[in-house]
Amino acid sequence: MSTLVHPEVQTTKDYLPLNGTDYVEFYVGNARQAAYFYRMAFGFSLVAYAGPETGVRDRASYVLQQGKIRFVLTTPLRPDGEIAAHVHLHGDGVRDVALWVDDARQAWKETTRRGARSVREPMELKDEFGVVKMSSIAAYGDTIHTFVERSDYHGAFMPGYRAEVGMSGVDPLARPVGLKYVDHMVGNVGWNEMNRWVDYYADILGFSLYQHFDDKDISTEYSALMSKVMANGNGRVKFPINEPAEGRRKSQIEEYLEFYHGPGVQHVAMATDDILETVGKLQDQGVAFLKVPHTYYTELEGRVGRIDEPIEELEKLGILVDRDDEGYMLQIFTKPVEDRPTLFYEIIQRKGSRSFGKGNFKALFEAIEREQELRGNL
Ligand code: FE2
For 102-112, how does the pLDDT look when each residue is reduced to its tens digit (9 = 90+)? Predict the structure, then answer.
């Protein structure tokens, strides 16, 4: 006698359909200067601006775009208020991971009904270019998710913003490097909190578990972490969630939590179709990446097999490679982009693989720990 196992048929409707990431908003100490860095070093174009000149009294916001990636850099103009408090506590960091939806009211209703804490009830902003509808809910730490509905909007970004050079033509400061879209965004949460936030994304946003790494996968002599990757129904939005694990000394996640003063976005991974060209340009433009030991490259072909890219080119730039049964992927990590060792970036090129570079974790962690040791935080 044999037992037939029928694969479970997915019948439940996705109650929170997401079209992708709409924007990532950072609260920063000086948005004008941060915008210069993202234009000159990372190649973003300035497409919109809001501030006193557009009738906004308490803040200035610069909207930057490259491919489908949109960053909003917002700074407070006065010492009071939630933006100043956020910068005071966290330093520069991500406040809002905004998600593009077809119905911002429905997204808010479905998620708050399931237990999300509302940060902003559904509201509309209008100008001569149309209507943007928004609502927001709280996520880990002081991070929020704003649902943005913009099907009826044809302006630069949103009502309240004016178009800037990059909207109509070429931003003379921008030096584009070929970044296309946000591949994933990683959150660091506190000790034993990973599963709570995994449940939040599952129960409240309808995400499901995509991949799972435990501390045996991701540990070095000193530090360890655990990670679960949550993805939405159509797979366009992926949020790995990390928590620290016991190691001999302080892990990079603990260092982040200490300097960010709580949970927050650890890194944003941005995709390119040509990582050699993208990373070459980023390095020329002053972006600093983690260094990888020479031994990583002597062992590379044995670990991942044949790949299209010349290994000496990868080594020159410090690009990592990992393979799974679907293909391979190339990735590299910047050093933190602020003085506090908090937010950094990943550049990623996928060639079939849907993984997050499990095979690289050890090599990478050892590189991160060398940096941590230099800061006296290991
Ligand atoms: Fe990543």
Answer: 999 999 999 99
